[in-house]
Amino acid sequence: MTWKLSQMETIVCAFCRGAGKDPFDIMSSLSTCCVCGGRGTVTVSTPHARCAHCRGTGAIKTLTCTVCRGKGVIPLTDEPRICCSACGGSGDDGSAPAMACLCCRGRGWVTRRPVEVKMARAADQESRAPEEKKGLRHERQRLGIVR
Q1: How far is it, in rounded angstroms, from Cα 32 to Cα 28?
Q2: N or C: which end of the chain has fewer CB within 10 A?
Q3: 23 near 60, Cβ under 8 Å?
C-alpha cells in the first residue's frame, strides 16, 4: 500500500456534530463526546472521504462507527479504487447492516491492484515424467479439482 505524506485538517466532529457532548445521553446529558473529548472538532489526514459505513454521521445506531472511529471520514490512498462488489459500496455487511463489510472493511471501495499472471512454459510441462503427470491427475481427483 502506498501512502503519501499527508497534511492534517481540523473538521467538525461527526459524532456529536460539534457540540462536544454525548449526542445520545447514554451516560448523562453532561457527558463529553467520546470522539472529540468535548472539543467539538477532530483532526484528520487529507485527502479523506466520507465514511460509507456510517454515511458520515460517525455513529452506527448509538455507538461510534468502527470504520472511521466516529470522525465521519476515512483517509484515502493514491492507489486506484473500485466499488466493493460484496456490499455494492454501502460499506455494510449484507447479513447484519450494523456490521462493516468484511471485503472492503466498511470503506465501500477496494484498491485495484495489477494482476500478475504466471504462465508455465510448454517446455516445462513436457519435461515432466508421465508418472508425475499421472500422480498429479490422481491428486487433483482426490481433492475434487477437476479440469
Answers
A1: 9
A2: C
A3: no
Q: Is 44 helix (H, G, I), strand (E, B) or coil?
A: strand
Q: Cβ contacts of residue 105 below 8 Å, gap of 6+?
A: 67
Does the reported pTM lie above 0.70? no
Joined together, the cell numbers standing for residue 120 give 508455465
> If we measure between CA atoms, which residue out of 78, 110, 75 comes closest to residue 91?
110
Q: Please state, in angstroms and rounded to a whole number, the distance separating the CA atoms of residues 9 and 74.
A: 12
Counting runs of H as helices and runs of E as strands, what totals does the chain give? 2, 8
Q: 39-43, 108-112, 127-131: which range is least confident on average?
A: 127-131
Distance, in Å, from the CA atom of 9 to the CA atom of 103, rounded to the nearest integer, reads: 28
